[in-house]
Write a structure and sequence with these properties.
Two copies of one chain form a homodimer. By secondary structure, chain A is an alpha/beta fold. Chain A has ten helices and 13 strands. In chain A, the strands form four sheets. Chain A has a six-stranded mixed β-sheet, with helices on both faces. In chain A, β7 and β8 form a beta hairpin. Chain A starts with 7 loop residues before the first strand and ends in a 5-residue tail after the last helix. About 5% of the residues of chain A have low confidence. At the A-B interface, α1, β2, α2, β12 and α9 of A face α1, β2, α2, β12 and α9 of B. β2 of chain A pairs antiparallel with β2 of chain B, so a sheet runs across the interface.
Chain lengths: ~325, ~325
Amino acid sequence: MARDQLRRAVIIAVGSELLTPDRLDTNSLFLTQRLNELGVSVRCKLVIGDDPADIGAALLLAIPKADIVVITGGLGPTEDDVTREAVAAALGLPLEEDAEVAAAIRSRFAARGLPMPATNRRQALIPKGAAVLPNPNGTAPGLWIERPEVVCVVLPGPPRELHGMFDAAARSRLAPAAGRRGIFRRVVHVTGRTESYVDEAASPVYSRWRSAPVPIAGQIELHLAARAATPEDAARALDAATGELEAVLGRDLVSSDGASLEEVVGRLLRARGQRVAVAESCTGGLIASRLTDVPGSSAYVHGGWVAYDNAAKTAQLGVDRG
Amino acid sequence: MARDQLRRAVIIAVGSELLTPDRLDTNSLFLTQRLNELGVSVRCKLVIGDDPADIGAALLLAIPKADIVVITGGLGPTEDDVTREAVAAALGLPLEEDAEVAAAIRSRFAARGLPMPATNRRQALIPKGAAVLPNPNGTAPGLWIERPEVVCVVLPGPPRELHGMFDAAARSRLAPAAGRRGIFRRVVHVTGRTESYVDEAASPVYSRWRSAPVPIAGQIELHLAARAATPEDAARALDAATGELEAVLGRDLVSSDGASLEEVVGRLLRARGQRVAVAESCTGGLIASRLTDVPGSSAYVHGGWVAYDNAAKTAQLGVDRG
């Protein structure tokens, strides 16, 4: 495939549970980040149920709008999992059992001393001409289907399987065809200031970073984005941007590597060889809880007192009743 | 519009930020719950950027698949907000300034002693024939566009404006046309048991509740769903289901009204007029934090000790070194 052919992606998440009030498709966030790093922008996201007709219609709708269509979910062994069959039918490709895949699934069960359930056999059915993407974390293989007009990548829904397969197999196949300036992101944390203050203070910087918009989320994060050919070039660009933000935000800037406030506090205590104890009232244990959320925090967190009612304040902390 | 005409919905979320690795469309969860209660099922969800062509294409794609298309986002006053214009163009409707809407926006600014910015005037442009859905929490009015083939409802993206407008204006317009058996949900919390144990114990119940699937989320929630003509009928059906679950799960069932473990603990302490103090170690304040997350918990939470390292265990709690 020619270089620079993959520019626009459509992500299709398959799963009837994703159309209830209880579930969101979060796989698309991981995929968007990976695709952006390869210079592929996401033009549209679709969520549809486990319905062959809807899956086929979504795929055919997406093809003219995208250079690459990523479909996640519905590759499991149960009758509800119809993505494999729906994609094959929509693209007019017959399904053929892949001996290697069948053997791999069989050995995966054998390794646990189990026979392969008949239902899992379906997972060895591959659309004619498709390449198989091995699944390091499960039985469902992924599919790489290259057509003149589009590349169709079919990945499993469970995040662990999806992430493993994308990084192990899909990414390397996409890179040569994408291979353009990727979009790399960095999150800067700010604390102790209002959103409007941060917005005003930071705007002179990010107004000069038009190509790197800085939306501000509720808890005051600055999201920097830079287009670059390599992660190294991106790092240099983002270092420059964060340097400028540090200059205007000073000590209000907590971290420029995505680290949370409690992680930064932990780093400082470690660096100084200091330990901390907390005395809390209305925070009710939240400070201790956040400090101890950080792995290895026992190295610098002694413990603390939660004096929630007035009696406790007096008894534990000797606070004057007055 | 004839009764029972609105069965299937497509939800379209508009916003380029929703196509980055940092943001998810969560409005669709609220809309799905409300639509389900009206007996409308969600067939497909789309997320697209602030692009007139993409918005128009998404709408025209959705119409043949749905009785109702709900579009959220892109109704703001800035140049990025193009949903109003895109929908009007896609449906072939000219935009006309609505005097009442313009007056409402102007008075909203006047109330704060501000003149109406020229940009906000755009928010008074209404597609010919569309009904205006007032916005109790903002300046952007919503749109109700009834066509022979579909009802198109356009709502603002900010959750507070979306929720307020749906419940105040959209719901009552949908109800007569939907008016079928709605889907009502209830969440049952279980604690102290593994997912597989709960799955096995509960399956005899929910196998007889086929129409009410019970997916099990990580923290072991049982999600019951019942189709019913009224909330009262649904409540009776769900009471019966939770009663059966209580019979098989016994004391492992924490609540059947969605209340969290800490809320239930609080209710019990209040009922018994008891107060609680906690002594924590590796939970590092999490127990105190969760207990005090409940509004009014100062009525029964005294406070506690977070003895995180061994020195603290000995000093605070007199734990034997041995």
